[in-house]
Design goal:
Helices cover about 70% and strands about 15% of the residues. The chain has about 425 residues and is of the alpha+beta class. The strands form 2 sheets. It has a 4-stranded antiparallel β-sheet, with no helix packed on it. The protein has a two-stranded parallel ribbon with strand order 1-4. Helix 7 (about 240-265) packs antiparallel against helix 8 and helix 8 (about 300-370) packs antiparallel against helix 9.
């Protein structure tokens, strides 16, 4: 909370812009190529529906032919005479499918289900991207607080070194004391540099997600203290999982494809009408109106293999669904255990910080009086520092686990 107040004061003094988590998620969804790709897949599925629907619409074709020279055979008085002349014809054919044993209907429905699946995949892509943004956003928050902890540790180490050096100058301590504290100062500087680098990495990654630079003095919303789940319910998770919903739609699609492929065995009943104007020695019109029924008798085994392939695809998606369901349940169980463990870790680290702070103050006072060694002082400082950093890590890990469950439930915000 102190960090937030300090950051707010910095905001007032430097007029830095605030960047909320929701803004980051909205910008990432708007510009990220993964979302664009998933959106295009939805558009392709819409086009596939129209392509399938065309199977029940009239198919009209026009044709024309011109022959500059052609040999015509003319029977006359029991003999055949030939004549060379040109010839041409123009015409049109209308073919209307009447019944194909639900093959076209199944294809249309399969494409509609496919569109539903792609829409769910798009939503899942948005939820996954939101999850990634949350991790980077809160990593920035944690690294910011970690930098503050590291800076305080560096100041403590520098102060201890100054004290040790003064004691050495006055003949009250040995050079080993000041040298060891100086080594601790260098280590604290190195750790501070590492933490700052981690902060820059998280900031750079978030900038890539939202497709715009993030100024150094940007103010970030404190979301770590607000992360919580109302309940951990496996049934609710499975019912809301976008991944499972999309796979369920894929199973429906493959079932319809299997049905459509099987219908190929029975052929198709079509209505046909044609008109042709022909000028080949004689000029005349010809018309045709009728019904045709075609049934495949032998296709080299292709139809049978297509049916077998459609059945395998259906069973394969069913197996993927079952496997993914088990994986989600396993991940949910692990995350639930981790969240409960992190809650205990946070309480333990808070107590450890309080106790180690008291110990640190006591040992520093005893060191000044010559009643404790520099090793004891450094150990106490290290314990206090480790407890503060571990607390930040536990808070971040708990928040990450919560956000992962939110993603598995299909939530974006």
């Amino acid at each position: 909370m102190k960090t937030i107040i300090i950051m707010y004061i910095m905001f007032l003094s430097s007029f830095a812009d605030a960047l909320t988590l929701k803004e980051c998620i909205d910008k990432a969804i708007k510009t990220h190529p993964d979302i664009k790709n998933a959106t295009l897949d939805v558009g392709m599925s819409e086009a596939s529906i129209k392509i399938a629907q065309a199977g029940y619409l009239p198919q009209v074709t026009l044709n024309g032919e011109y022959n500059p020279t052609r040999t015509y055979v003319l029977p006359a008085n029991g003999t055949f005479n030939t004549k060379e002349s040109d010839g041409w014809s123009v015409g049109g054919v209308v073919n209307q499918k009447i019944w194909d044993f639900s093959k076209t209907t199944s294809n249309i429905e399969a494409q509609r289900v496919s569109k539903d699946a792609q829409t769910l995949i798009l939503k899942d892509a948005k939820a996954l991207l939101a999850y990634k943004v949350k991790l980077q956003y809160e990593s920035i928050l944690v690294q910011t607080q970690a930098i503050n902890v590291r800076e305080k540790d560096l100041k403590v180490q520098e102060e201890l070194y100054k004290q040790a050096q003064a004691f050495v100058d006055n003949g009250m301590k040995t050079v080993a004391d000041s040298t060891r504290f100086l080594s601790a100062v260098y280590l604290a500087k190195d750790n501070l540099a590492i933490t700052k680098a981690s902060f820059e990495k998280a900031r750079a990654t978030l900038a890539l997600y939202i497709n715009e630079p993030i100024p150094v003095n940007t103010i970030f919303q404190d979301t770590l203290s607000n992360d919580s789940l109302s309940e951990l319910d496996e049934k609710i998770l499975l019912n809301n999982s976008l991944t499972l919903k999309s796979l369920h739609k894929s199973i429906q699609k493959e079932s319809l494809n299997y049905k459509a492929t099987k219908a190929s065995y029975y052929g198709s009943l079509d209505g046909i009408a044609s008109f042709t104007h022909q000028n080949t020695l004689n000029e005349y019109d010809s018309t045709l109106v009728g019904i045709t029924y075609t049934i495949p008798l032998y296709s080299g085994g292709r139809t049978g293999q297509e049916v077998q392939q459609a059945m395998i695809n259906k069973e394969k998606v069913e197996a993927i669904y079952a496997s993914k369901k088990l994986a989600i349940i396993e991940e949910f169980e692990h995350l639930s255990i981790d969240i409960k463990r992190y809650a205990q870790t946070i309480k333990a680290k808070e107590s450890q910080i309080e106790a180690s702070l008291h110990t640190q103050e006591l040992l520093e006072a005893r060191y000044k009086e010559g009643l404790s060694t520099y090793i004891e002082v450094l150990d106490a400082n290290a314990i206090f520092l480790e407890a503060e950093l571990s607390l930040l890590q536990a808070i971040y890990d708990r928040s990450s686990a919560i956000h992962r469950i939110e993603y598995l439930q299909g939530k974006i915000i």
